[in-house]
Amino acid sequence: MINLTEEQKNNIISECINSRKTFKVIARENEIGVDDIYSIVNEYCQKNGYSSFRRTHNGTIFERIQYIESGFLKNLREIQEWNKENRRRPIRLGKVKVAKEGEKETAEQKERRLALALKTIKHMIVKQYDNISLNNIKNENHREIVRIVRELEQEWENIFQKEKSEANLNKARKLEEWCIENGKRPRKLDKVKFAKKGEKETKEQKEKRMSRIYSGLKKDIEKYEDKNLEEIEDENDREYVKIVRDIENRYERNVGNRRSLQDSEFLKNAINLKTWCIENRRRPRALSNVKIAKKGEKENEEQKEKRMSKVWWNLNNKIVKKYEGISLENIKDKVDKEIVRIIRELQEIYPKNKRGQSKLISNKNNKKRGKAHFVKTVGNEKMKKMIVNLIKTKNATEEQIKVIADFYGVDMGKVINEKDER
Q1: Distance (Å, rounded) from C-alpha 345 to C-alpha 193?
Q2: CB 63 within 8 A of CB 53
Q3: How far is the C-alpha of 50 from the C-alpha of 324, rounded, in Å?
Q4: CA distance 275 to 273
Q5: Packing angle between helix 334-349 and helix 398-408, nearest 10 degrees?
Q6: What is the spatial distance between Cα 287 and Cα 307, in angstroms, rounded to a whole number?
Q7: Using an 8 Å Cβ cutoff, are 378 and 305 in contact?
Q8: How far apart are CA 101 and CA 59, in angstroms?
Q9: Please, are residues 222 and 193 in contact by the beta-carbon 8 Å criterion?
Q10: Is 422 within 8 Å of 392 (Cβ atoms)?
Q11: What pLDDT sits at residue 152?
């Protein structure tokens, strides 16, 4: 709570008692929070031997009321009885109205009333004793209220964790069945939409749903990342962690990796981009005046170049940038690793000049040329120097030389000879 003088606190209390203003209005006018108003009211009550304030039905005044058995404790005991039957926290049902005086209360109305009562008790009594042990609470009534609320909260938390653990285990078993049946991990399938309620689910929609389950379970088992199965106390948690780990080990090394490498749209785009760059010996340009071909429309060369430029930008911003300063060996995701490798090679072979254009762009007309043209062009001193410098600075192995040579369409023997000469 912010620091206020006794005079300011007394003025606020006076407003609460004598005005029709809500706590929210009073808080705004005094430039403090609503929680600060409650704290001031509670402090005033403790000093004067009262438990709290309440507003009467006409809303004109606040009455100071003594704590009695029929107040907060009565509500808490009613909540305890309700909890024995329902084994959960009462919910404030939005569309249900509280029963009027003399009207018979339905189950939903009772639940709403108890939920509101619990919220009020927590806000006005329990909140002020956060991080304070029961032994240090001097007010006996408050100590009893805090004890009951804390016990209820702990019980509800245990029930929630148990239900969550059981639900995760059921999901893991369904996921395991799907993986065994299909011999692979489920894919995200970005272009597939989930089946609507009551709609028959297709194979692709089921796979997408299994993928979401898999992602959710992987996030949930992160807390057990450094633990062996024997160290996990909860039986359900231990079982579903075992299932998820088995799926990762079984399908990553075999079908899983091949599937993900083959089916990744990003990787397919990266390979197509690499092919385009090899054919044209440069990076694709953005071509701001050219529009990308519509679906079903035949694509011309300029439209394809613009599309490749967009592919480059997307791959660089969505994947490559997050691995800046990280070596390929330290990238765990196989698809990302392959994409980063391709883009880094393209960036090295086709660097940008100050204007942002590829240095290897020809000043002449931009016609496609085959390998024969490259073999002739390799005699050009500039290009020859660049290839050899790449090899020299990287201390390239024969395999790396082959990669560079493939990009240029140059005979590998020529490039190796150039290395030996140096």
Answers
A1: 35
A2: yes
A3: 62
A4: 5
A5: 70
A6: 10
A7: no
A8: 18
A9: no
A10: yes
A11: 92
What is the reported pTM? 0.46
The SS3 call for residue 55 is strand
In this structure, the chain runs to a length of 422
Domain ranges of the chain: 6-65, 160-260, 264-362, 370-422
Assess contact for 21 and 15: CB atoms under 8 A.
yes
Tokens 């040329």: give the residue: 369
Please list, residue by residue across 133-154, b when 16 or more beta carbons sit within 10 angstroms of its beta carbon and e when fewer do. Answer: eeeebeeebbeebbebbeebee
| pLDDT block averages, 10 residues each, the chain of length 422 | 81 80 85 84 72 54 45 86 90 80 85 88 85 86 88 91 89 90 85 87 91 89 84 86 86 45 72 90 87 86 90 89 88 85 89 56 42 43 61 62 64 55 52
Strand, helix or coil for residue 358:
strand
> Quick check: helix, strand or coil at residue 93?
coil
Q: At what angle do helices 412-421 and 398-408 cross, to 10 degrees?
A: 120
Q: Hey, what are 99's tokens?
A: 């029963």
DSSP-based three-state secondary structure for 54:
strand
CA distances from 147 to 126, 135, 140 (A): 9, 10, 11
* Angle, CA 400 vertex, CA 397 and CA 404 arms, to 5°: 135
C-alpha dihedral sign at 409, 410, 412, 418: negative
Q: What are the two backbone dihedrals, phi and then psi, of residue 65, each rounded to the nearest 5 degrees?
A: -125, 140
Q: Which amino acid is at 309?
A: S
d(CA 51, CA 280): 82
Going from the C-alpha of 359 to that of each of 2, 286, 342, 377, 391, the distances in angstroms are 62, 16, 18, 15, 18
pLDDT of residue 385: 61
CA distance 105 to 114: 12
Buried b (16+ CB within 10 A) or exposed e, 21-51: eebeebbeebebeeebbbbbbbebbeeeebb
| pLDDT score at 5 | 86
Residue 352: strand pairing partners: 358
Closest among 383, 387, 389 to 402, alpha carbons compared: 387
154 forms beta bridges with none
Q: Minimal CA–CA distance to 404: which of 360, 416, 337?
A: 416
